[in-house]
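User: Assemble these into one structure.

Assistant: Restating your components, then the assembled model:
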Amino acid sequence: MIDQHEFKARNHTSPTVSDSITINRLFLAWLRIGFTSFGGGAITQYLIQESFIYKHKWITAEEYANIIAMCQIAPGINIIAYTILIGKRLAGSLGIFVSLMGLILPSAAITIGISAIYTSISDVSRVQSSLRSVFAAIFGIALATNWRNARPIFVSNRKRGSLAFLATLGIMIGSAIIYIFLNPPVVVLYLLGGICGALIYWYVAKKDQED
Amino acid sequence: MDWIIFFWVVLKSILFSTGGFGPLPSLHADFIAHGWASEKQFTEALAIGQITPGPNGLWVVSLCYLVAGLPGAVLACIALLLPPLLILIVQRVHARIAHHPATQGLLDGVVLVIVSFSVIVLTGMFRSNGVDIGMVVIAVISAGLAITRCLSANTILVFAALVGLIVG
C-alpha cells in the first residue's frame, strides 16, 4: 500500500502549494465530479480543471494540457483516459483504480437508475414526447459536435494544399458511399480511413520537405 | 444472449472509436444486425445518456441496460473502461510518434470516417424518431445554439424536454 508521504513526494514538481494527496481525498475528488457533472463531457472537463488544477493544485495547467494532447491518440472516451493519466500521475496504479471508480461508479449508477425509471414510465405519452424533443435537440447538438470535430481538419488541410483538402473530402464522401451501398463492417472503414489519412499526410509532408 | 459476443461487440465499438458519440455507428450496425436493439432504444439511450452526469459516452451504459438489463450495463461499464487504458502504452511512445505526420493523418482519417458515419446514423435515427416541423425546429435551433455556444448543452436539453412536456 502506498502511503500518504509517497503521494506528497510524487507531487513535488507542482510549483504552487498544493493540498496533500491521500487515496481517500483522490477518490472523493473524483466521486464529487462523478456525482455532479450533469451536462456531459464539457462540464466534466470543467470540473476536473476546477478540482485538480485550481482547488487542490495537484496538477498544473501545463500538465493538464499535455494530458489532453496525449489522449487524442487513445481509443475510447477521452475523459476516461484523462482520469487514468491524472490518477497515475498522482498515485500510481492505485491512483488509476480509485480515480476510475470515483468517476464512473456514481455516473454509471445514476445512468442505470434513470434508465430503470424510464423503462417503468416510458408508456406515459408526455414522457415519450419529452424524450422525443430531447433527442431532436441531441441530434442538433451532435451535428454541431461532428462539425466541430471535422472543421479543424478541413481548415488545416486547406493550408496543406489541394491534395490534402481533396483527400479529406474523399475520405468522408467515399466512406459514406461505401457504408450506404456496400455496408461493410464499420471497423474496416475506420482502418481504411486511418490508413488513407496516414499515407496522404506522410506523402504531403515528404513532398513539402523535398520542395 | 451470448454475453461474450455482446461484450466483444460493445468493446470493439469503443476500441475503434474516440469520443462519446464515436461508438454509435459500430454499435448501431451490430445491435440492429443481431436484433438486440431497436432504433427507438438508441434514441432513448442517447437522450438518457445526455441528461445523466459523467462523460457523454455513458449513453452506451443506458443502451446496454435497456437491451440487456443490469448484466448488460455492467459489461458496458467494463468495456468503456478497458480501451482508454491503452493510453498508458501511448504515453510511453507519445514523444516519439506524436509529431510524425502519419500519426496525425491516421487520427484525422479515423475522425473523418466517424463523423461521416455518425451523421448518417443520427439522420436515420432522427427520421425514425418521427420527423415533423416541431422536431426539425428543435434540431436546427439546438445545432445553432451549440455551434455559437450561446447556451450550454445542458440548458438546451432542459428547454427541449420542457417543450416536449408542454406540447406533448
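Chain A touches chain B through 98 residues (CB under 8 Å).
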